[in-house]
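One thing: could you explain this record?
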Amino acid sequence: MARARICAVDFDGTLVEHRYPAIGKPLPYAFETLKALKGNGIQLMLWTMRGHPDLNRFPHIDLHTGKYIPTDTLQEAVDFCKEQGVEFDGVNLSPEQFSTSNKQYAHCYIDDAALGCPLTVDGFVDWEKVLHYLVLRKWVTPDQCWDILGVYHGHQIPEAPNPNHDL
């Protein structure tokens, strides 16, 4: 039996605009794309720096203001995603942790800080381009892409440079 593919996704700047510790507006096509991935059997992992207010472990401080953050910003992000119709298979943890490493295991990482991840001019993840990549890798179908972007949006999915390559 083949294992499910795993996609690790950041939160701030990737699913929503940067407004930490608040939650920014959802980015276009982000949650629709995650729903399509989940519907295709892809395991979704939330991989974020948001955390719990546990001063015994580490101070939960806003690095921009230096002020203590008394809320559980991680749970707020998880709850927000659930409100958008996306539930994760894991949060800051590999689905089948097979080592003692803290590194998130995934076949695909979508993160505004990842080298090569397509970004908008505002510096957020460009989900339109991510969708094209996911079609090329056969993680979503062209029809799912059209449903998310809209058939009349004028998009064209480029041909795969190597149709035999798949993640």
DSSP finds four helices and four strands in the chain. Residues 73-83 form the longest helix (11 residues). The mean pLDDT is 84. Helices lie at 30-39, 73-83, 127-136, 142-149.
